[in-house]
Amino acid sequence: AALAVEQELSSLLQHMRVPHVVASPTVLPGGIYRVPVWFPQPQAIIDVDVQGDRLASGALGGGAELRRQQLRSTGLRVLTFEASTLGRSSKMQRLRALAEVVAESCPEAADWLASAEGAASARDDRPQREA
Questions:
Q1: Contact at 8 Å (CB) between 8 and 93?
Q2: Is the whole model's pTM more than 0.85, yes or no?
Q3: What SS3 class is residue 36?
Q4: Quick one: pLDDT band at residue 87, thresholds 50, 70, 90?
Q5: For residues 11 and 123, what is the distance between their CA atoms, to the nearest angstrom?
């Protein structure tokens, strides 16, 4: 499942022409975590929320909080993405959701959001009226 998420994220980032490295344990000293996506230039990573990262209340669980704290302590910016977004939305909605997460660190994603295709994805997100 993790490999499928990494591949999907990479495919979406490639679509937006965002430079990235996929599934790299080498980002961190000792390779303590497998990072799904790494952005070398802004020194940022995507940490994907998966089942078990959240408590029943919706709050971040201790393991996920510790992982993110350790990632930040290495000087990386941690961008979080909800894995469930990938399975329940159209490609345009997935592109937009990911672009919104990484746009602050990756200007290519911000450019994509401002593009005609990015604007079309916003229209795709609006609820459809029934006739």
A1: no
A2: no
A3: strand
A4: confident
A5: 22
